[in-house]
Design goal:
Keywords: Iron, Iron-sulfur, Metal-binding, S-adenosyl-L-methionine. This is Radical SAM domain protein. This protein is of the alpha/beta class. It has helices at about 50-65, 85-95, 115-125, 140-145, 150-165, 185-195, 215-220, 235-245, 275-285, and strands spanning about 20-25, 25, 45-50, 70-75, 100-105, 130-135, 170-175, 200-205, 250-255, 265-270. The chain contains 9 helices and 10 strands. The radius of gyration is 20 Å and the shape is globular.
């Protein structure tokens, strides 16, 4: 256990479960996405942490004797910090925790607008090697409905900038985000965005609303769309079939194994595209024989 005091709750990508979570900001700088309740509590109002406090925490970890090879910069969007501050934090990690081989962070596309490729390359050389980008969708209508504050184009610009800097990107797409009415265009345009960006990692999870879907669903009503409802299991598989069919990726590592997914999918696209599509189609045709997660197993 790391000797740090966190402003909770603290979230991190599933793959960072072994990493030191270094809280360099509290909350999310945008925090308007209608599907997200992660940073809505009163104590999660956005605020950058002072660099002297960050240094004290890094030194605490170093003095504890705990060895960690990876660091994740929390909370929701550490990349909103200015280049100079990010560089300072990475230099402190390098100084006090020289065994760290990789630093990562969540990243909203908008917060790379004021950072050049050269600046990102400098941060990469200081250890910041992986960005987790919650694109959620490649469809502009869906993105507007969920108040993401991003577009297909703004996401693509950010992903290309990350790639040019020599960093890796891990992109998240949310299955079911457009409901039944927008399901197909959500899948097709998400695939189109991924085909243009060719991220290193791509993962999907099923959109869910632990605190209720009223705030999310009302946007659909305001847009004169059919009332939103979550996709059924079979509708989710149909959307995944469209997404996979439209994807034209070269070496992207694909994962759809989050607890929210009924069907676990893992592979490299494009090598494993046919096999993954076969799994999805089998689940559509014979769900009782597809080794699906039960509702109680989904950890929503």
């Amino acid at each position: 256990m790391y000797p740090l005091n966190y402003v909770e709750p603290v979230f991190r990508p599933p793959s960072e479960w072994k990493s030191l979570i270094l809280q360099v900001t509290n909350g999310c700088s945008w925090n308007k996405c209608s599907f997200c309740d992660m940073y809505t509590s009163e104590n999660k109002k956005f605020k950058p942490k002072k660099v002297d406090l960050i240094e004290q925490e890094i030194i605490k970890v170093a003095e504890s004797g705990i060895k960690t090879g990876r660091v994740f910069l929390a909370d929701g969007d550490a990349m909103m910090l200015p280049f100079k501050r990010l560089k300072e934090i990475l230099e402190l990690i390098e100084l006090h925790l020289p065994q760290v081989t990789r630093v990562s962070s969540y990243c909203l596309p908008r917060n790379l607008r004021n950072k050049t490729v050269e600046q990102l390359a400098e941060l990469k050389n200081l250890g910041l090697k992986l960005m987790y980008i919650g694109c959620e969708s490649g469809d502009d209508e869906v993105l507007a409905l969920i108040e993401k504050g991003e577009t297909y184009q703004s996401s693509l610009i950010a992903l290309n900038k990350i790639k040019k800097a020599g960093m890796k990107s891990s992109v998240m797409i949310l299955n079911g985000l457009g409901g039944p009415e927008l399901s197909r265009q959500h899948a097709i345009n998400s695939a189109k965005l991924m085909n243009e960006a060719q991220p290193h990692f791509l993962s999907t999870l099923v959109v869910s609303f632990p605190l209720g879907e009223v705030r999310f669903a009302e946007k659909f009503t305001q847009a004169s769309l059919k009332p939103f409802r979550q996709l059924t299991q079979q509708e989710l598989f149909s959307e995944m079939e469209v997404l996979l069919s439209e994807l034209d990726l070269e070496t992207t590592i694909f994962r759809s194994d989050h607890a929210s997914n009924y069907l676990v999918l893992k592979g490299v696209l494009g090598n494993d595209k046919a096999a993954l599509l076969g799994q999805v189609r089998h689940a559509l045709q014979q769900p009782s024989d597809a080794n699906l997660r039960q509702e109680w197993q989904r950890g929503l």
